[in-house]
Write a structure and sequence with these properties.
- The complex is a heterodimer of chains A (458) and B (273).
- Chain A is α/β, with parallel strands linked by helices and 458 residues long.
- In chain A, 36% of the residues lie in helices and 18% in strands.
- Chain A contains 19 helices and 15 strands.
- In chain A, the strands form 4 sheets. Chain A has a 5-stranded parallel beta sheet with strand order 3-2-1-4-15. Chain A has a 5-stranded parallel beta sheet with strand order 6-13-7-8-9.
- In chain A, α10 links the parallel β1 (139-143) and β2.
- In chain A, α4 packs antiparallel against α5 (69-79), α5 crosses α9 (111-124) and α10 packs parallel to α19.
- Chain A is globular, with a radius of gyration of 23 Å.
- Chain B has 273 residues and is an alpha/beta fold.
- Chain B folds into 2 domains: 2-87, Translation factors (Elongation Factor Tu (Ef-tu), domain 3, Beta Barrel), CATH 2.40.30; 98-254, Rossmann fold (3-Layer(aba) Sandwich), CATH 3.40.50.
- In chain B, 30% of the residues lie in helices and 31% in strands.
- Chain B is built from 9 helices and 17 strands.
- The two termini of chain B are 28 Å apart.
- Classes of the chains: A alpha/beta (458), B alpha/beta (273).
- The A-B interface holds A 168-170, 178, 206-209, 212-215, 235-237, 239, 245-249, 251-252, 254-255, 258-259, 262-264, 268-274, 276, 346-348, 393-395 and B 23-24, 26-27, 37, 41-44, 66-67, 70, 81-87, 213-214, 216-221, 223-225, 230, 235, 246, 248-249, 252-253, 256-257, 259-261, 263-264, 267-268.
């Protein structure tokens, strides 16, 4: 049994930080076989229970070993219709791979890389799976075409329901389209995998803002949907709340990433939406979105991109792989720095003033909390991208007063059901900003509750 | 795809369109706006819903930059790639007896549904409408249906007073009292109107049209400082009481992409002409 984990080829950092092509290139068939051979095929596979959608991981890896990639795809597809996406963006190190028994003594099986290999193979070969669906008459509505909505729609469609997905933007995929950059998740892959749900018979409707274009009440009582799933995500940016934040040159990560990912501002003027950041760009925050923003800024040609984070390197909430890639791409980390003020001239930002922090006692998250030292440092900047988190968009709540949310605007659910009978919710709109796969897991589980609700009412 | 069912040229710079968009029309209220994308690669352009019926909405736009020029190339019978709405909060209709509408240029379009709503509720409505020339005064016939008096101001004096809408307003304030003014137009015009109205103790509402992408509160590009607090024009507005708005900040934000806009116009439209 080989102990070495098979590395996935990547683009050279010096080249890739100037382009938007994918960083990780994927396994060749030989590398995939090699890595698959490391799986021990445990009797009680811990990886499966650690997967939010419980993919039969040893099962699909066995098929790779047997060189039957099509069958491997079928195995994954039973639990997850978006393998090429999840293989790329799941935090496997804390889920399946984090539970792999091999990880105790050496390195876990590269399950994510294998899933991606299978997903990509299926897309390249145009593998389509014909499913027998026994049709039901009842209609269900899904709000949001992000990971939660897609997973929920597919599950309900397989149960035979007539499924309509309503998306506020002009493209489908939610955060997969506006949030995650091409170099981590090419948008063709998102479109192709969403096609899987379309092929199942799920109907997608763009430009439909539920709460504005149509209300929950209208969906239930005028259009006679039997049940509704809210998977509208966490799209509202959090602000620093410090002086000068509304000067020009200061972006929320949402705006910056949406300009580039959804509107293709990196191709300006071929695409008509511009983005401007200058040479010295500060990124505030240490999560995956901050890493995406930093690496995108670098690719747009910024000379100096630095991350301002109020704790130290060990506390960065971003995935380790993203941090490593960022460092390789010359992103500078200025740690233990907490922005307290933006300084500008005539409403244009010129500098960010930071307090130097030290680490004190652990807080409720278990991480040592940053404490101010009353010493300050000022950095010259042309722009700043604030990436300190997102909360749920309040449009739906304000249009639907009877929908109960918590203090942070997250929808309150019990067994995925909201305070409105028949209306369910899952993903970031319930949990706050989390991961693609957790949202998919919630969407799948909610589908089961919705089916139960509809059958009990029938 | 969304069909353009009717199109009118209002003057050399400004055009009117009726678009079939039943889900935008269905819940639309005075003050709401929509976002259009002309083609597959288009920018998202926010525009006020001027009027609506059951199936369609009307918009008025000025051919100002690349994307509005592109929109202008579309004719009745053509299709737009995306139309989404109704966005923003409906206008907050105040309990008043007399209102003065003040429209600058294409601002006459967003002002129209609000002023009409006040008139419908029995409020006495006067209007000052300003533009570069006589040809730039928009919707005058339509306004005449419900306004008590209409006053004009043009830059070249070709209609009404030569000069600014604020000069006309100041004269009016000598003889009339108004409970409220609604001023919509270029930022500098709205800023100056508020300054004047403060002097005469007239409340002012404005409608803002800052740069925005999604229009649903996601990007935060459209943020505006009001009495020291941040508001998003797309979801908290676009209409606001004007007294606390930091117009100077907003003007700088509005001009952030001027260079890129000029560049793409030169590059793409220059070649076309």
């Amino acid at each position: 049994m080989r102990a070495d984990r098979t590395k996935m080829p990547v683009q050279d950092p010096e080249i890739r930080n100037c382009n938007f092509d994918e960083v990780a290139l994927g396994y060749t068939p030989e590398l995939a076989m090699l890595e698959a051979s490391r799986c021990l095929e445990c009797k009680n596979p811990r990886c499966v229970s650690a997967c939010p959608v419980n993919i039969d991981i040893p099962g699909f890896i066995k098929h790779i070993k047997d060189a039957n990639i099509e069958e491997a795809y079928h195995t994954i597809y039973q639990s997850n219709i978006l393998p090429a996406i999840c293989g790329r963006v799941c935090p496997q190190e804390t889920q399946c791979e984090g539970s792999c028994i091999l990880g105790i003594k050496s390195k876990s099986v590269a399950i994510g890389a294998l899933e991606r290999y299978v997903g990509d193979y299926a897309l390249k070969q145009n593998l389509s799976i014909q499913e027998e669906i026994s049709e039901k008459e009842e209609k269900v509505a899904i709000i949001g075409s992000g990971p939660a909505g897609i997973a929920c729609s597919a599950s309900l469609r397989r149960l035979g329901y007539q499924v309509d997905v309503f998306e506020a933007l002009h493209e489908f995929g939610g955060v997969l389209k506006y949030g995650i950059p091409d170099f981590r998740l090419p948008k063709e892959i998102v479109d192709k995998e969403i096609q899987n749900a379309k092929d199942l018979g799920v109907q997608f409707h763009k430009n439909m803002i539920v709460g504005k274009s149509i209300t929950i009440d209208q969906l239930l009582h005028e259009y006679h949907y039997k049940s509704i799933f809210i998977g509208s995500g966490a799209g509202l940016p959090k602000s620093l709340g410090i002086p000068g934040e509304n000067m020009t040159g200061i972006y929320f990560a949402n705006e910056f990433l949406t300009r580039v990912n959804l509107m293709k501002a990196n191709r300006f003027p071929a695409a008509p939406t511009p983005v401007r950041i200058g040479n010295n760009v500060a990124i505030v925050g240490g999560g995956n979105v901050a890493m995406d923003a930093a690496r995108t800024a670098k690719r747009l040609g910024a000379k100096n991109v630095f991350v301002l984070y109020r704790r130290d390197m060990t506390a960065l909430p971003a995935r380790q792989e993203e941090v490593e890639h960022a460092i390789e791409e010359q992103i500078d980390f200025r740690l233990l720095r907490n922005p307290v003020e933006f300084i500008g001239e005539n409403y244009v930002v010129k500098q960010v003033k930071c307090e130097v922090m030290i680490l004190g006692d652990p807080d409720e998250s278990g991480r040592r909390s940053p404490v101010g030292t009353n010493t300050f440092e000022t950095f010259d900047i042309d722009s700043c991208i604030i990436s300190i988190g997102q909360s749920p968009n309040p449009i739906l709540k304000s249009a639907t007063p009877e929908l109960e949310v918590d203090r942070r605007g997250r929808i309150i659910v019990s067994n995925h059901q909201t305070s409105i009978p028949g209306v369910f919710a899952g993903g970031d709109v319930v949990s706050g900003a989390a991961t693609v796969i957790l949202a998919m897991g919630a969407g799948k589980e909610a589908a089961i509750s919705m089916d139960q609700f509809i059958r009990e009412r029938a | 795809m969304y069909e353009i069912t009717e199109k009118k040229i209002l003057n050399q710079d400004v055009e009117w369109m009726r678009i079939k968009a039943p889900f935008v029309a269905k819940n639309a209220k005075p003050g709401n706006f929509l976002i259009v994308r002309v083609d597959e690669f288009g920018e998202r352009i926010p525009l006020t819903i001027v009027t609506h019926d059951e199936m369609s909405v009307t918009i008025i736009y000025q051919k100002l930059g690349y994307s509005t020029q592109l929109l202008s190339e579309k004719q009745a019978g053509d299709f737009l790639f995306d139309v989404v709405g109704p966005l923003g909060l409906p206008s907050h209709i105040r309990d008043v007896k007399t209102v003065l509408g003040i429209a600058g240029g294409v601002g006459a379009a967003p002002l129209f549904p609000q002023l009409k709503e006040y008139a419908r509720r029995g409020v006495i409505v006067d209007l000052i409408i300003g533009g570069r020339t006589k040809d730039h005064l928009l919707l005058v016939d339509e306004y005449q249906e419900f306004c008590r008096n209409i006053y004009f101001a043009t830059d070249d004096g070709s209609c009404g007073q030569k000069g600014f809408v604020t000069q006309v307003a100041e004269q009016l304030y000598q003889e009339h009292t108004y409970d409220l003014a609604i001023a919509i137009g270029p930022l500098i015009m709205m800023k100056n109107t508020v300054l004047l109205n403060k002097k005469y103790n007239v409340l002012t509402d404005v409608s803002l049209n800052p740069i925005m992408i999604d229009g649903t509160g996601m990007c935060g590009n459209c943020r505006v400082t009001i009495n020291g607090k941040t508001k998003f024009a797309c979801v908290d507005g676009p209409d606001f009481p004007a007294e606390g708005i930091d117009f100077d900040e907003l003007m700088v934000r509005q001009n952030y992409y001027k260079e890129e806009e000029n560049h793409i116009c030169r590059l793409k439209l220059g070649a076309r002409k």
